[in-house]
Amino acid sequence: MLDINNLSITFHPGTANEKKALKEVSLHLDDGDFVTIIGSNGAGKSTLLNCISGSYESDDGTIVLDGKEIQYMKEHKRSKMIGRLFQDPLKGSAPDMTIEENLELAFRRGNKKNGLYDRFLKIGLTKDEREFMKEKISHLELGLEDRFNTKVGLLSGGQRQALTLMMSTINTPTLLLLDEHTAALDPKTAKKVMEITDKVVNENKITTIMITHNIQQALEYGNRMIVMSEGNILMEFSKEEKSKMSVEDVMKIYQSKSAQDLSDKMILD
Ligand SMILES: Nc1ncnc2c1ncn2[C@@H]1O[C@H](COP(=O)(O)OP(=O)(O)OP(=O)(O)O)[C@@H](O)[C@H]1O
């Protein structure tokens, strides 16, 4: 479903600041895979997601998603297939619009049959659509279904991140990219948003890549864990291997295989 072959990108080539951020990275994901990625600061984790989403154009290599070569496809076109969440809960939803308006925008954007919104002809949700979305959002158990007319800017960081997750998955994406999407939340809220994420991903069998600085989270969730260092994929662990590992084991293995330690953020967690 996702085939990345020999992906490379160098920033500021030929200058003193030259940085090979990805060095011939190859990665294959099957349908429904939920892969967690950990690695030291500057390992290339976000760059990899940026190349997949189209925020960055790689110098070399291919990215094939669902049989289509996408490495030269514009980012806005890829966004119809790829959902993405960032660390910052303020990204991904419009603060001056209500929950309902944000959900409608996400619903029409990814739904060919509902292309009217693309042409800026806002038509509003039908009664059935509103009920469908209220039902979906009630699964978050955050009470957002009763606040459909609340402006999103008034929601907490956790509520907003959960809403963005809902917006990214209301039309099931081919691929979901999560870039430390719980890192800016307090531990209790982060846990709740992670549990919601896991439920949404598993129930809808969404192929997902999640970067996290939290090793425990990387071990606990998903069916594969990838470890990156200096622009390379250093190691990969299956669900079964992960289940037998502790956070300390991961840190020891990383230190023995890489010249670096895992990021300071990870050690502090
Ligand atoms: N737009 C850019 N211009 C120049 N250098 C960049 C750019 N984006 C990333 N880099 C560099 O590429 C390297 C990899 O960065 P990246 O953000 O992918 O790391 P990361 O593994 O996500 O790290 P962190 O855990 O600190 O977020 C870093 O040295 C970074 O400074």
UniProtKB/TrEMBL annotation:
Compartments where found: Cell membrane
Keywords for this protein: ATP-binding, Cell membrane, Membrane, Nucleotide-binding, Transport
Record-level Gene Ontology MF annotations: ATP binding
Lipid bilayer topology: Peripheral membrane protein
Keyword Transport: yes
Classification via PANTHER family: NITRATE ABC TRANSPORTER ATP-BINDING PROTEIN, TAURINE IMPORT ATP-BINDING PROTEIN-RELATED
Native source species: Breznakia pachnodae
Coiled-coil zones: none
Protein known as: ABC transport system ATP-binding protein
ABC transporter domain residues: 2-255
